[in-house]
Amino acid sequence: MKFIVKFFPEITIKSRPVRKAFVKQLRQNIRHVLRDHDENVTVAGNWDFIEILSDLNEQREAFIESLRHIAGIAHFQYVREFPLTDLDGIVEEAMVSYGDALKDSVFAVRVKRVGQHAFTSVDAERHIGGTLKARSGALAVRLRDPEVLVPIDIRDDRVWIIEQRIDGLGGYPLGSQDAVLSLISGGYDSTVSSFMTMSRGLKTHFCFFNLGGDAHEIGVKQVSHFLWEKYGSNLGVKFITIPFEEVVGEILNNVDNAEMGVILKRMMLRAASRVMEGVSAKALVTGESIAQVSSQTLVNLKVIDQVTDELVIRPLVTMNKQEIIDKAKEIGTAPFAASMPEFCGVISVKPTTRAKMHRVEREEAKFNFEVLDNAVNSARVMSIQDVIEDVNKQYQGEVPIVRMPVGDEIIIDIRHPDEVERHPVKVSGRQVINIPFFTLGNKWSGLDQSATYLLYCGKGVMSRIHASHLMSKGNENVGVYLP
User: Fold this and answer.
1) Which of 29, 234, 330, 427 is the most exposed place for a label (fewest CB within 10 A)?
2) Backbone angles phi, psi at 326, to 5 degrees
């Protein structure tokens, strides 16, 4: 079994030393990935292409699926190789590969040659095409827009019959560029932005700010592992979790509502800037897109970026939401993102779209930065290879969903107090108490544990996360109210 890999066009226009380095990295990535299917696979490269050889023909589809997702490949071909005897010998081999496809078709033969031969490429095309038409039952030869194309490479004394051509991912080989740290929440934007840096050759580590307990962290670990396993070329990267619930609580308790969103983003960049050195990252990556949400105006982004001297990359900055969703569907992260929508506990009810630095600094003066220090010092770093095993250790059970309470359950409204004030929830015959999500963990132990509680947040996202978190701590008297 043999594959020929062609490089992404931008690789071929690099200087000789850079091109050699890119090809070496791509060859190494291919070898790492394909060894999962064949320990003895041969990956040999030269200036124009990479050859892949394996004795395990049964692994053909597995090889194709893996090669499709390795950055740096423009396209690759499955070929049959045999010694050059004469043009009639090539016809015999072409009948083996294309005989059935040529019957009742309009076709063309394309010949490429390298080396010295007694015939030209045009001579070979005419002879092989004419003989194939006579032997295969084809209707005609047509050089423009043929129904079936028979591509043949003649290289010195060897011949390649190209049986299949598959498009690759493009981009630069992963690891050929510096490392970055991607801030990932598991939604459409952050998963697509992470993919885009990976496909450009940037070794992409993942940083997750845990705002809502184990359930959200589990989901983000799963989608991060999916991205790495499918597109990461088996390079070793890290997954970093920074506990941010207390940071959010500090903001909600002490910061003016309008500035909350901008200040939360500034706190995230501060924290990420401090942990990125541990993974040798040279830039931070976010999934922000201009004006997609209120905090993502140019004015706000400038204010957010001023907390760090590090480069902040925003691959989606000019993409619209539908383009991002379509890309997530294409790369396979959409099902994950669909199960992790935005929290219904909105960080700001009336967020500023034109943040003023003096106002932000005034509000941040009220923030206890020891809380941020504690979050960074509590950051957990693990290899991406280990996150699924870690997920299996965390609670993954079903959270009870109640749409119409029939017992004596107590409803806990965990929304932001401003949201509660604007849209109070009332459940006939049921007690409703208000405990914001950012204080629920601390106040839970003070509740009557003989009672059953149903968490409410409007959309059911935040309530599921916190109910799962409480259940993971051994609490069985909790569920979700989702009318």
Assistant:
1) 330
2) -60, -40
Distance CA 112, CA 141 (A): 18
DSSP sequence for 351-391:
--SS--HHHHHHHHTTS-HHHHHHHHHT-EEEEGGGHHHHH
Query: 349: pLDDT confidence band, cut at 50, 70 and 90?
Result: low
pLDDT digits (tens, 9 = 90+) for 266-278: 999 999 999 999 9
Residue 183 backbone phi and psi in degrees, to 5:
-85, 110
CB 186 within 8 A of CB 287: no
CB-based contact 184:199 (threshold 8 Å)? no
The 8-class DSSP code of residue 297 comes to S
Res. 211: pLDDT tops 70: yes
Confidence of residue 344 (pLDDT cuts 50, 70, 90): very low
How sure is the predictor about 51, in pLDDT bands with cuts at 50, 70 and 90? very high
Residue 470, pLDDT above cutoff 80: yes
> CA dist 362 to 253, 259, 269, 359, 365, Å?
15, 10, 18, 5, 5
Run of H or E including 43: strand 42-45
- Statement: residue 280 has pLDDT above 50: yes
Residues 6+ apart with CB under 8 A from 120: 113
Q: Annotate 47-71 with DSSP letters as a single string.
A: SSEEEEE-S-GGGHHHHHHHHTT-T
What pLDDT is recorded for position 254? Answer: 86
SS3 assignment, position 284: strand
CA dihedral (30, 32, 37, 41) in degrees, to 10, reads 70
Residue 424 CB-density burial (10 A; 0-12 exposed, 13-18 middle, 19+ buried): exposed
Residue 457 falls in the annotated catalytic set: yes
In whole angstroms, give the CA distance from residue 298 to residue 302: 6
Q: How many C-beta atoms surround the C-beta of residue 49 within 10 A?
A: 15
Q: What is the pLDDT of residue 347?
A: 57
In the numeric block, which tokens belong to residue 32?
């790492």
Q: Point out the catalytic residue in the list 240, 319, 331, 457.
A: 457
Which residues, other chains included, contact 226 with Cβ-Cβ below 8 Å and sequence gap of 6+?
Answer: 332, 333, 336
In the 8-state DSSP scheme, what is residue 430? -
Q: Is the pLDDT of residue 388 over 80?
A: no
Tokens of 198: 């990976």
